[in-house]
Each structure stands twice: as C-alpha cells, then as structure tokens.
Amino acid sequence: MGNGAAKKILIVDDDVALMRVMREALTSMLRCEVDTSPKPEYGFELALKKTYDLMLFDFSMPMIDGAMLSHWEGLQPLCPTQNCAATPPRHRQGR
After folding, report:
1. How many CA atoms lie within 13 Å of 82's alpha carbon, on the beta-carbon side?
2. Cα 23 to Cα 5: distance, rounded to the nearest angstrom
3. CA–CA separation, 16 vs 85, rounded Å?
4. Which of 46, 55, 87, 89 sits a CA distance of 20 to 30 A from 80?
5. How would you label 50-72 residue by residue, b for 16+ Cβ within 10 Å and e otherwise?
6. DSSP of the chain, one letter per residue?
7. Hey, what domains does the chain have and what are their CATH numbers?
8. Cα-Cα-Cα-Cα dihedral sign, residues 91, 57, 64, 76
9. Residue 63 in contact with residue 55, Cβ under 8 Å?
10. Other CB atoms closer than 10 Å to residue 89's CB: what's the count?
11. Which residue has the higher pLDDT, 18 or 74?
12. How far is CA 57 from the centre of its chain?
C-alpha cells in the first residue's frame, strides 16, 4: 500500500466464512487493518467509535441489513448493487 498508515476497513457480514476470507486477503495482500463483525448492531457501534477508510456491509442480512447501516451512518455508497462498499462521510473522516 505504499508509505503511511495502514488503511482501516470495517466488514459487517453474517456470512462468517466470507468475512474471514475478505479479512485475510485485505490484511495479507494489502496490509490493511480490518475489523469485522457478523452482527450489524456491533458493526454499527464500531463505526461510531472508530474512523474507517472503507466500510463493507452485507446488504442481505436479517433484521438490520447493510442498507439500513449505511443510511444510519450517512455513508456515500460506491456502487448501487446488493454487494456494496461505502465510504465514511467527509465530516467524520477527520476525527
């Protein structure tokens, strides 16, 4: 990833196996710091407590899905599909 601090990524997905694969790929290949949660409620708490460069939410989780999480966080979607990434709002990036 070059010089500087490692990029911080949050992954929230109820598919634990997929989440582990994504975490392993991001940490080993790109040297990112990755937090994960299979529970949207905990993922939401992490998003409020920490600053992330990228957040990946599963848009088809039961009860609270990625669309709801991104709406609560005021995130900027990177793509309009079910499997979507989101970036933190600009006003929160500097905290």
Report:
1. 3
2. 17
3. 17
4. 46
5. eebebbbbbbebeebbbeebbee
6. --SSSPPEEEEE-S-HHHHHHHHHHHHHHH--EEEEESSHHHHHHHHHHS--SEEEEETT-SSS-HHHHHHHHT-EES-SSSEEEEE--HHHHT-
7. 8-89 (3.40.50.2300)
8. positive
9. no
10. 11
11. 18
12. 6
Check residue 32 and give its pLDDT.
94
Quote the CA–CA distance of 30 and 22 in Å, as a whole number. 11
* Helix/strand/coil (H/E/C) assignment for every residue in 36-63: EECCHHHHHHHHHHCCCCEEEEECCCCC
Q: What is the pLDDT of residues 55-74, one digit of tens each?
A: 888 777 777 655 666 655 55
**C-alpha angle with apex 9: 4 to 13, nearest 5 degrees?**
165
* CA terminus-to-terminus distance, the chain: 22
- Output the six-digit token pair for 65: 């899905």
